[in-house]
Structure formats: structure tokens, C-alpha cells
Amino acid sequence: MQVPTSAKSAYAAQLRKRLLGSEDIASELRELLPADLQGWGHDHDAFELMFSLLDIKVFLEVGTWKGMTSIRVAKEMIKRGIEGAIFCVDTWLGGEEHFGYRDMRRLAGYPRLYDQFLSNCVHEGVAPLIVPVPTTSHIGSVVLAREGIKADVIYVDASHEYADVLADLNDYFPLLKEGGLFIGDDYHASWPGVIRAAREFADKNDLRIYIWATKYFLQPKAVPPLAGHFLDVTDRPGVFYNGEAGYVG
Ligand SMILES: C[S@@+](CC[C@H](N)C(=O)[O-])C[C@H]1O[C@@H](n2cnc3c(N)ncnc32)[C@H](O)[C@@H]1O
Question: Which residues of 73-93 are buried (b: 16+ CB within 10 A; e: fewer)?
């Protein structure tokens, strides 16, 4: 199967070969599924703004689902002529909230999220930049650390259970390049475990915690503060974003 894109990245191809046994995994799909471009939280302006804040060659997403955030970031890299890599860590089995969820293909009850994700990457012309890491977030962090991968931006959006989020923060923060940006999703009243884990992790590691709508951003206190859209909630534990009500608390 031809991948309809002019995008290329020798770095991503080499990592696919090392980790997955083949540079061209997209051509090995048993069936190219029709595009299904559904996801959550990918329409946030931070994913474009971050390119003006940082030199981004490696983006790491923990919890990728059908790929919408990584596809958006990959398109931005392609537009800017960056031959980077997007690491996508996911079991592609869904979270606890996806049992019974309708908007997802299954075969004999088993999720087909990985096939859908990779098909979407092909349809959107970004597959050459994508390096899937199809495993649990913890094992993914061990593999990436073993490979010496450090990312310019890490985006954590896998399980939203308190213990899992805390584990993801502990596992992935060390994989951030110095001066990089660490982003998490769903700092929102609907996900109290996310807020609790993010705040605990920030407190323990002397980090500032900023929010911009439902995204949170962690940065060492020593680096210059994030300005503009970013609201510093390091010392404001009750403040979060609540949709139309704006910032509350
Ligand atoms: C909310 S979705 C991610 C949405 C995605 N960021 C987007 O842009 O649409 C959460 C994803 O995390 C994955 N996930 C949940 N727990 C995980 C774990 N322990 N390890 C790896 N992936 C996990 C699920 O399979 C699911 O695809």
C-alpha cells in the first residue's frame, strides 16, 4: 500500500525499525480502515503555540486513541519542514470509560483501535513521522528510557485514574528534555484523580503547575514563568476550568 504523503523522517523510520521490526509498518496493515477522526482535546491551541515556544523535534504522547492529537502535531511538524518523530504510547485497548463505548470498532469484542489509529495516520499523510509504542504506559516508559529517548514535549492523556496518572507522571517526567514542556489533559472537575495526581506530583518535585482550559503544564520553578494564556495555579489548588463558566474556584 502506498502511503500518500511526502513527509519523511529518517529518525522515526530508524526507531520503527528498532522497536517494531519494520520501517514501513503502515504498508503492513491488514486492512486500511476508513478514516475515523474522532478524539478528545486535540483542538487546543497549545499544540500550535508550543512550536513558537520551543524547538520541537520529538513529541511523545501517552494515550493516543485514534491519533487526533499526534496527527495534529505531526502536520504542524510537516508544515514547518521538521523531520521529527512522534512517539505514541498506548495499549490501544481503551480505558475503563471505553467499555460499552459505541464509537469504536471491535472485532469479536476486541478493540481495533490500533488499526484505526494507524489507518488515520495513513489517510492524514503523517505515518512517516509516527512511532507507535503499543504497550502499557509503564512498559512504554521503560522501553523509551532504555532507548535513550528524550522528548521536547510530553503529553500525558492515558488512564485518568489517580494512581495511574501519578505513575505516568513519575515515569515520563524524566523523559523530558531540559527546557521541554510537559502537558497533561483533563485538569477538570470531572477527573478529580487527574487534578490530585498532578498537584501531588508538582508539590513533591518543586514544579509550577499552570492551566490553560483543561490542559495542565508542569515546569521546574527555576525556569522563566509561562505567560499569556497560562494561568499559574501552583498555589491555587481549588482553581480549574469549567467550560462555559470559565475558571472557577
Ligand atoms: C482519552 S484517550 C486519549 C485521547 C487522545 N489523546 C486524543 O487525542 O484523542 C486515552 C487513551 O489512553 C489509553 N490508555 C489508558 N490506560 C492506558 C495504560 N495504562 N497504558 C497505555 N495506554 C493507556 C487508552 O487505550 C486510550 O486510547
Answer: bbbbbbeeebbbbbbbbbbbe
